[in-house]
Structure formats: structure tokens, C-alpha cells
Amino acid sequence: MRELLNNLKLNMNNGNLLHTTSLLLRVFENIQEGIMVTDSQMRILFVNNAFESVTGYKKEEVVGKGPQVLQSGIHNHDFYKEMWAILSKEGNWQGEIWNKRKSGEIYPEWLSIMVMKDENDNVTNYCGIFTDLSERKRVEEQLEKRALTDSLTDVNNRFSYLEKMNLLLNEDSRHEEEQHAIFFLDLDRFKQVNDTLGHEIGDYLLVDVANRLKRLLGAKDIVARYGGDEFVLTLTELRHPREAAKFAEQIIKEIEKPVKINNQEIFVSTSIGISIYPHDGDTTEELLNRADKAMYYAKQSGRNRFSFYFDELNTDANRLILLDSELRKAIDNHDFELYFQPKVNVRENKIIGFEALVRWNSEKLGFVSPAEFIPYAEETGLIIPISEVIIEKACEELSILRKAGYSKLPISINISSIHFQQTNFLESIQIILERNNTSAHNFEIEVTERTVMNNDADTISKLVRLKQLGFKISIDDFGTGYSSLSYLVRFPVDYLKIDKSFIQHIVNLADKQAIVDAIIQMAHRLNMQVIAEGVESIQQLNQLSRMGCDFIQGYYYSKPVPIEELIEFLQFWEYEHQGEIES
């Protein structure tokens, strides 16, 4: 602009005054930058069209006034003092400034101010030329947001979370009393949703989960998608760790609510690990690492629960490597053992069958709890060959039972949701039965409530086919999800197994009694029979008997035992206990 003015001045000196004036006016009115010219006393003399367009003020509204009409109030006195100091010294100033439009909207602009002087070096005018930066700022903000936000869920991404956490911990290094809770969430069996329903449904589910988490958080808290189906949250300014436990329970309840997609209800749950700052670490990396270990412990302990970090978890890494290696050997060598727990007809005092429960005694690890190796097997896909080994073993043990004279006692086999959703699930079972020359009528298939709640069209098809083959069908852990009995009526179900969490307190808690009683009555109306699992006392047995429960399973009658002890138990029951056995 200064060069333009100098050229115009040169043209004027050369006598082209009329042409130069016309050119100057055309440039002044058509240039895209806003221009404001004042006199030496900072009174506005004239402005151009771009000035009107950007600020919203007409020429007649500002001429004679000072530039203060545009001030936003964002910059303090020192800002303007420094600006004028530079103008006086150097004759020009440029920089970013926030001004205010006539509408009251505050906007950013890039402003250049030039001091105009006469031949005697006296200030005659000030010329301000500015560019509206609003659109550029919006683009920059969008780019920054894109760099810091997960593109699918619109929450923080991993980089943004780490940045915010580092800033938070850096600030809190000056406040020793501050506590924060870090939550590491992993959705249970999310891979199954992706594999069976497709990635589009999986993505929709992730977005829904992210929105639910956002609704639980306060303004100072942080949520991020850490990767895949993992989320991390920070609950700031904690007064006591019990607040973290309460919040984790809220998360679990929120996540396990069904998600409705295309008129279909999808059920997921989450496992959560928690670390506390500064007790479990004073860096973001350390806190996340420990929350991750606690999360995996929660998953191993049965999923849909939370765990705080504790020091012993640091020893788990080497065990995990060994667990994987030993588990694969056990599959190859069929090193699993089946234990059996009887099911008893309450009214007739008659044993009517057994549930087969897998046990594993590793050469290097010793006895490994199913609560440890089953979740790991499901995460890695090893549960499928393990399930096939279990079915094979059940066929072998059935043969032993038959030789001992017990020909009509069916064995219940638990089928993992992962295995059930496999396309070759039915074929693999049929092959095992044919190989062992046994019939499906000798077995019951137990699937969890959550298994039948997802992908119902495929589920119904498989359950119908199982019934056609001769299997009885049980819904295990009933009452722990969000299904209803009216929903289950569409499935060809023979038995409902009430989860032991309801049975434990059935004697003392009226709400548990009401739930169990309602399940029993409704199931009977829908021509289903009811099995109560986890029965441990005569009081529980009597209560269930009064409610009309059909079958009982639990330590009151017998703990799970290997096949040899089972046969001894049956003989004791038959001859000394004077109980009956289905025949």
C-alpha cells in the first residue's frame, strides 16, 4: 500500500492528477481490505466499501468519530500504549487485533497502520488497512479440532487426551492435595458385534457409547477414545477414591443399557480399570498403564465390572505370556477336565441332569480358575477350540455315565457367545456328535441372556436348528441383562436359569424375592421351566419351592465334582438318601 501511494504521488507530480485521482478512488473503493483514514487527531475522514462490509457501519455513521467505535474491550490499556509507542517510533504498526462489528460481534482482524506525514515531518493522517480473519480462524479451529478430536465419536483423541492430562498434572504439581481418577474402559465382546453385525453397526455403537460417557462428565473432566473400542476418562478434583467407584458403577449401568439400531436392540457391557493420581503414579503414562492393567484384571474377573489398580497387577505380564502358551498346549492335548453339578427337581426330590463345568490344572501354572482363562480365551478367540474340546469331553463322560447305569440324565454344556456366533457353529457340533456316535437328545445347550439379545434373526435360526437336532435350550444368567420374558417368547427356549446374584439374598431382600417370583410366574405362563442356580441353604430352597421354582442347582446339594465322584454321589443319592434319579 505504501508503494502504491508513492507511485500515485509520483504520477501526481508528473501532472496526471485527474487520472491518478480517479485511479486512487477506484482502488480505494474496490480493494478487498477494509481501509480507514483519519486526520492527525484520529478523527475518521473516510472509509471504503470493504470497511462497511466487514464492520457493518456505514460511512456516515463513523466519519468524524474516532476508531474507538470499533474497540472490543478485549485488549487492555497496555496493548494500545505499546501500539502507539511503535507507531511513533517506526511510523507503522501491524498485528492481530480483536474489534467489534456494529452488531456487537467480536471478530479478529490483521491490521496495518501507517503514519502519513507532510514535507515538514508533521503527522497529517493515519491510514489503517485491515483483513477480516474470521474465516481463517474458523478453518484453523476446524483443523485444530480435527487434529485433537476422534473423527468418529467427536470426543478427544489419544493425542489430545495426553496433552490435556500432562497440562492437568503439571498444574497440580503445585497442589499436593489434588486427586484425580483415571478410568480405562474396554467394551466387552465388541469384536463380536463387528464380526456379526458389521462395522457400520459397530461404529454407530461407539458413537452412542461416547455420547453416553459425555453426558456423565462435568465441565472439567476429560473423555477420549483411546483406540478401537477403548475409552479413557479423567474425573478431576476427587475428594475420595470412593467417588471413583461410584462413578464407575454409573458408567457400567449406562453402557449396559440397550442400544436400538434399525429396530434391533444391541447389548454391550464394559470392563473398567481405575488408577488414582497421585497414589498410583504422577505421570500420565504411568497412570494410564496402571489403569489398563486394572481394566484387564476386571475383564478376567468376569467382565461388566471395575477394578482399582493394586501393586500385584505388575506381576501379571509374565503370567499372561505363560497363560497363552499353556492354554494352546492344553487345547492340543485336551488337558481340560469336566466337573458336574447336579440339577434337582424340587417337588419330586429327583436328579434330572447335570451342568458340565470346565476345569484346568496346568503343569506350569497349577490350577487356573475359569474366571481367569475363559475371559482371556474369549478375547483371543481360543474359546472356540476350547468349546469344541469341552463338547468332545462331554460325549466321553456321557459314555461313562451310561455304562454306570444312568441312561437318561442329560448334560448341560455352556456355549460361549463367541462360539455361538460362528457361522460353522452348528456344523462343528454335529461333527463331534457323529464322531462320538451320540445323540443331541443327551444334551442341553446353555447360552447367556446377552447372547440371545443380539442379532436375533440369526439367533432364532440357530436355536430352532438346535431344537430340531434334539437339544434342549437353556438361557443362562437370566436377570442380569435388559431382556424381558415377552422378548424371549420368540425363542424356542425350554429353561430359564435365574442368576445366582438374585438367589443369594432371596431370603432377606424383598426386592430380590419379587423379581424371582415374577420371573417364575411369567416363565410358566410362557411354557418355560425355571432353574435357580447358586442355592446354598435350606432357607433358599424352601423359599424357591414356595414360589414354584422347578429345579434347583447349587452347593446345597453338591459342589461341582469330577465324573468319578459324580457317580458315587448318584449312588449315595439313590440308595442312602432315597432320592430319585431320572430314568
TrEMBL record:
Gene3D superfamilies: 3.30.70.270, EAL domain (3.20.20.450), PAS domain (3.30.450.20). SMART domains: EAL, GGDEF, PAC, PAS. Residues 178-311 form the GGDEF domain. Residues 93-145 form the PAC domain. Residues 320-574 form the EAL domain. Pfam families: EAL, GGDEF, PAS_9. InterPro entries: Biofilm_reg_signaling, EAL_dom, EAL_sf, GGDEF_dom, Nucleotide_cyclase, PAC, PAS, PAS-assoc_C. Residues 20-65 form the PAS domain. This is Diguanylate cyclase/phosphodiesterase with PAS/PAC sensor(S).
